[in-house]
Amino acid sequence: MYTILGGDGKQYGPVTAEAVRQWVNEGRANRNTQIRPEGSEQWQTLAHVPEFAPLFVAPAMGMSAAVGGTPIGSAPNSGLAVASLILGISGFCLPVITAIAGLILGFMAMSKIKASNGRLGGHGFALAGTITSAVALLFSIALIGFYAALLLPAFAKAKTKAETINCVNNLKQLGLAVRLYSGDNNDKFPLATNWCDAIMPQVGTSRVFQCPGDASMLRSGYAYNAALSGLAEADIAPDTVLFFESDGDWNASGGKELLVTQSRHYKTYVVGFADGSVQQIQEGRLSQLRWNPTNNTNNPKE
């Protein structure tokens, strides 16, 4: 039986001669490794112990060179452990996938180190890499959440603005379709009962009737001012409401009672007028809209 003095200054043993030979074969001991036979107080190198001296005459196949072996107690660090730590640190400034990779490699490294029975070191690196990667991952998630909180309102506002622009374009096309219809029908506007069907040939596609801000996506998100039904264009005041947003669906017609009660475009209502113009009306201005097409009334805005 023998006691080995490791490269870390610790004593290992007592171990059998066969165990010492195995350590030499694995490169964990070399010719200069200090050894002490059981019952002796004197340390000597492996190369000077007659029982082990033949091991260092020439490197046998499958054995490390005599001087080049890694000392006992100084097992090589796991590459996965070192990579885990590097990725964990990088995770604070690189994409979140880096921290995830570091976390996975850290767990893999600790598992391999444990299974190596001392032939692999670097458990501290693996543990530090795992913890650092986890912290970096949490930091990245928090950072993403922070930026999302800042950007989501801006995205929502941009989406609403785009929907409003599309809604304005829809009503412009519908207003143009009515004027084209009027030109083909003795300068008279379509009847309120079937206005969608009447101007469909001039519109060309039913998608123009759908308001982009209408979550229910009705076949028609607009209504026609019934007060203009069949009137001659010359008898209609230009600033009279022609089309407005409504939940009445296809061929819906009527007055301000059909106007949507809740804005689809962030406190803005899109309204088309008899002269073909389209405006975005704030809620406070709705009461000022003209619904009566004639000019000879005591209250032309009604």
Overview of this protein structure:
- By secondary structure, the chain is an alpha+beta fold.
- It is 37% helix and 12% strand.
- It has helices at 17-25, 79-90, 96-115, 123-184, 195-203; strands at residues 2-5, 11-15, 34-37, 44-45, 222-225, 241-245, 253-254, 268-273, 278-282.
- The protein has a five-stranded mixed sheet with strand order 7-5-6-8-9, covered by helices on one side.
- The chain is rod-shaped, with a radius of gyration of 43 Å.
- 31% of the residues are buried.
- Mean pLDDT is 85; it is low at 59-69 and 297-301.
Helix-strand string? EEHEEHHHHEEEEE
Overall tally of structural domains: 3
Mean of pLDDT? 85
Binned strand content? 5-15%
Give me a quick take on this structure.
The protein has 302 residues and is α+β, with helices and mostly antiparallel strands. The protein is built from 5 helices and 9 strands; from the N terminus they run E-E-H-E-E-H-H-H-H-E-E-E-E-E.
